[in-house]
Amino acid sequence: MPLSARAQILAISQLERVRLESLGFPVGVLEQPFNFSRDKLYEIFDELNTVRINSLSYNKQYKKNLKRRMGRYANQIISEIRDENEQLTYPIRALELWMCTIAGGILPERREDIIGIWSQFRESLPQVGSAINQLILDSKNISFLFEEDNNEWNYAKIDPDVWKNWCDFVPKPYIIDSFSTVDTFGDTYVYRIMDSISEIFIKHLGQEKGKEAMLYFSLFNRTLLETDELDFDAQTETYIKAQLTPEEAALSVISKTASLFKEKMNNKTLTQDQIRIADSFTLSLKKVLEAENYQKVL
Questions:
Q1: 188 confidence band (pLDDT: 50, 70, 90)
Q2: How far apart, in Å, are the Cα atoms of 106 and each of 32, 44, 154, 185, 208?
C-alpha cells in the first residue's frame, strides 16, 4: 500500500480514537491495553468487531445507493471523486488497527507483529498533512454532490491542525524506541502474570481456597530476603523473548516459587512467618501444578 494511502488510514484511525474516547470508551485501553484484563479486552474487541461488520454492510448498501442515484454515469463520476472500491474501506482498516492494538493485550506473544503494523503506518507520517487535506476535500465533494451533510463524510468539520496533532499518538507497548521490559511492556506484563496466577489458583482450588493460596503466595514472596527473591525483571525479559502468554509465564512463576519453597524447607531456612503458611501453601502448589500437568518441580 502506498504511503499516501497508509497516511489516510492513520489519520482516520486517530480520528476514530478521539471519537471512541468521547463516547465513553474505557480510558487508556487504546494507549495501554495490557493494563486491562483479558475478559475486558475480549469484550471491547467484540464491540469493535460488531462496528466493523456493520460498516462492511453499510459500504455495500452505500455503493448500491450511489449507483442508483447516479444512473448510467455512476462509475465515471465515482472514479473522478475517489477510488471507490479501495478508499471506502479505509475507515474499516482504521478500525482494524485498533482491533489489532487491543488484541495485542489478549495475545502478548504477538507484540512484534503489532509493532510491525504500527511501524508501517508511522512511516507515512510525513504525508499525513496532505492525507488529511485530501480527506477533507473528498468530504466536501461528497456533501456537495448529494446536497446533504452526511455524518459518514464529516471530515470537513475537523480542524486539520488539531487532527494532524492527534496522529502522533502510538500505544505505549508498540513504541519501539522507548521499550524496555521493565519500564513499559514489562511492567504491565508482570501485572498480567499476577492476575493469571490468581486465576489459576481459583480455577483449581475454588474461589475461597484460590484467594487464600494467592495470599500465601504473596506473603511467602514478601518475606523473602532480597537476595532470595525471584528476579522478576530477568524472568519477564526471558518470558517475553520466549513469547510466552501471561498464563504460561504464570505457571512458570508458580513452579519456580514451589521449587524455591521446597528448597528452603529442605534446608530448614524458613522463617517463623514462612513456616506458618508452609503446609497449606505446599498442598495448594502441588494440587495446582498436578492439575496443569506441570511436572518440573514435583
A1: low
A2: 12, 11, 33, 13, 26
Alpha helices, H only, 107-149: 111-122, 128-146
Residue 250: all three cell numbers together: 504464570
> What does the alpha-carbon distance between residue 255 and residue 288 come to, in Å, rounded to a whole number?
10
Give the pLDDT confidence score for residue 233 in this predicted structure: 60
Mean pLDDT value of segment 231-246: 71
Whose CA is closest to 189, among 237, 150, 126, 134? 237
Nearest to 243 by CA among 130, 97, 111, 85: 111
Residues 64 and 60: their CA atoms lie apart, in Å, by: 7
Does the model's pTM come out above 0.85? no
65-94, pLDDT tens digit by residue? 666 666 666 666 556 555 555 777 899 999
| Residues 196 and 39: beta-carbon distance below 8 Å | no
Cα–Cα distance between 87 and 120 in angstroms, integer?
Answer: 18
Q: What is the largest CA-CA distance in the chain?
A: 89
For the cut 90, the answer to whether the pLDDT of residue 238 exceeds it is: no
Tell me the C-alpha distance between 262 and 291, whole Å.
Answer: 19
Instruction: Provide the residue ranges of all domains of the chain, joining segments of one domain with +.
Output: 3-174, 185-291
Decide: residue 105, CB within 10 A, 0-12 exposed, 13-18 middle, 19+ buried: buried
* CA gap 214, 200 in Å, rounded: 10
The Cβ of residue 137 has, within 10 Å, a number of other Cβ atoms equal to 14
C-alpha cell at 12: 482516520
